[in-house]
Amino acid sequence: MKYYAVQFSFHCPDGQLQDARDVLSALVGEAAGFESFEETGDGLTGYVQQALFQRDALCAALECFPFGAVDFTVVEAEDRDWNEQWEQAGFEPIVVQATDGACHARTVVIHDGRHLPDAATVAPTGDGSVQFIEIDARQAFGTGTHQTTRMVCRALLALDLTGLRILDCGCGTGILSICALMHGAAGATAYDIDEWSVDNTRHNAVINQVDDRLQVMHGDATLLYSMPDGVLFDVVVANINRNILLADMPAFCRVMAPDAKLVLSGFYTVDVPMLTARAAEFGLQTVSMANDGEWAMVMMEKTNA
Asked: Which of 2, 73, 189, 228 is the most exposed place for a label (fewest CB within 10 A)?
């Protein structure tokens, strides 16, 4: 199988370089079929099958890039398994903790099965509990290493999910669905436009023994318009870029039950007013907000009006 190596270089301050890499990989991964990425000194190299490469879609996605101009060069990649090389690196365990306000701490530890957590560093406090989630470290967004994933996980841990139905939009590795299912949710439905991410979510659901409660679909938010009447969700999570969230808001609201929560991330604090205004058009009220540096998370609730 032949691949292109697309070499991206950024024109942004050094302090924004890592954020620029993260945003670009999310943008072009969804839009132009990239399978994996490697960081370079001043940018990023993405790998895409030659037969699937869409230059026009790539250029259109880069028009939405929030860090200024991006240069890219397309060359033929040498033959090797790019995903396998990424998988071998793995990631260090990530600890995410939330409290329900009554001194009950909930903790989740996300690990790759090889870099195992130190029990002493994740011991629960008080009457709290710890759940361990193993994510096979392959090239899909959602290992917990990014601020947006951690914020959404933290928001889920703070909710009482007992018996609730979850919708995971743009599921990546499936981390958000798995987190919800391991903390009381009755069932989850997830979808992703990337077929590889769909497979990876199913794989990780089996690893964490929640595959009997997780349905995974290949496609985008248009899938929600073909849901059978009466199929509604209590919590909808979407960790996607701003423009997709704005466009998909009607589809999210269509399948939300009365009083359902919508948890959004994947955007910057400066984008919050635009997203909350869009949500208000569909009767959603902002419940809470959080940020980790420039990245933001918003939780909204569907009103009965």
From this structure: 228
